[in-house]
Design a protein that fits this description.
single chain, alpha+beta, three-stranded antiparallel β-sheet
Length: 84
């Protein structure tokens, strides 16, 4: 897997460092973020009739809005790989 580092939260204090990577080969974006509180997790899991608890292999992460440009950059990297 060729994972490309895209960026880290620009306001990181190095102890709390949400990060974005792109895997163009697998056409996936990888996110590291904060674990939600139990209340937030319940809100997310109950926000739609189709939603239930996150399966064991999945996680809900919280990413600050200031990272939107990095997420867009990762999306672009994966999208460009599809065009090759």
């Amino acid at each position: 897997m060729a994972v490309e580092f895209v960026g880290i939260d620009p306001d990181t204090d190095r102890d709390h460092c949400p990060t974005v990577w792109a895997d163009a080969e697998a056409q996936e974006i990888l996110l590291q973020g904060w674990k939600p509180t139990p209340e937030t997790r319940a809100d997310c899991e109950g926000s739609s009739p189709a939603n239930g608890p996150a399966p064991d292999g999945e996680a809900i992460v919280r990413i600050p809005a200031r990272m939107i440009p990095l997420i867009r950059e990762a999306c672009d990297a994966v999208e460009r790989a599809q065009l090759r």
